[in-house]
Amino acid sequence: MYYEAHEPHGLAHDPFKAIIAPRPIGWISTIDKLGVPNLAPYSFFNALSSSPPILMFSSETFKDSARNARDIGEFVFSLATTKLQTEMNISADTVPPAENEYVNAKLAMANCNNVAVPRVAASPASMECVTLSCEEIKDQHGKPIDTFLVIGQVVGIHIDDEFIVDGRFDTAAANPLARCGYRDYASVSEVFEIMRPTDGLVYDGIDR
Asked: Is residue 125 part of a domain?
């Protein structure tokens, strides 16, 4: 089939998110101007740069996470895992800004080193970020679309030593969650290696 993206697709459900899948989940924590913590998962999330490390998430409508990241200038990404799927899902609920999703999800908070925002203590890895920008995205005609792109530079990384094996972060052991289409999720329980033509016979840890 083929359809123009601005026209009806004729399917029971929009396939866009199911095709762009799996997507890593940005479990984003922030604080507001009163210091109240906020925690929410974002499936429009990814890394943008490794040197310096920079990541992004986007919020469809100006939700608390985007507003706090803009106003306070900080946010934290914590890795959502299969073990924490229930807590992650609870934190996706729409609640008043004064409510603390950590409390609702019965999650312990842990302090960060460089930012005032807490991280998810039970997560295998977290990244402290300083907000670089928070901008509303515009479509091809220059019309604002009420979706906000937040970009942050990573200034600190927390890793549970349990998941460091032979000098590598053991992704399969951490068992991260990923978002697919509709209400579908995937989990990473197995990884495999493919050498690039520029690697030679052994991967030396440098991405070319």
From this structure: yes
| Residue 8 covered by a domain | no
pTM for the structure as a whole: 0.94
Tally the domains of the chain: 1
Note down the domain range covering 27: 21-199
Partners of 176 in the β-ladder: 81
Nearest-CA neighbor of 146 among 135, 154, 156? 135
Q: What is the dihedral of CA 52, 58, 59, 63, to 10 degrees?
A: 10
| 6 within domain boundaries | no
CATH of the domain at 62: 2.30.110.10
Please, what is the Cα angle at 37 between 57 and 121, to 5 degrees? 80
3-class secondary structure, 70? helix
131-177, pLDDT tens digit by residue?
A: 999 999 999 999 999 999 999 999 999 999 999 999 999 999 999 99
Please state, in angstroms and rounded to a whole number, the distance separating the CA atoms of residues 13 and 15: 6
Q: Which residues pair with 131 in a beta bridge?
A: 152
Local structure of 110: helix, strand or coil: strand
Confirm whether 83 is domain-assigned: yes
Pair of tokens at residue 198: 């520029």
Q: Residue 205 corresponds to which amino acid? A: G
Averaged pLDDT for residues 34-51: 97
Residue 131: CB atoms within 10 A of its CB come to 20
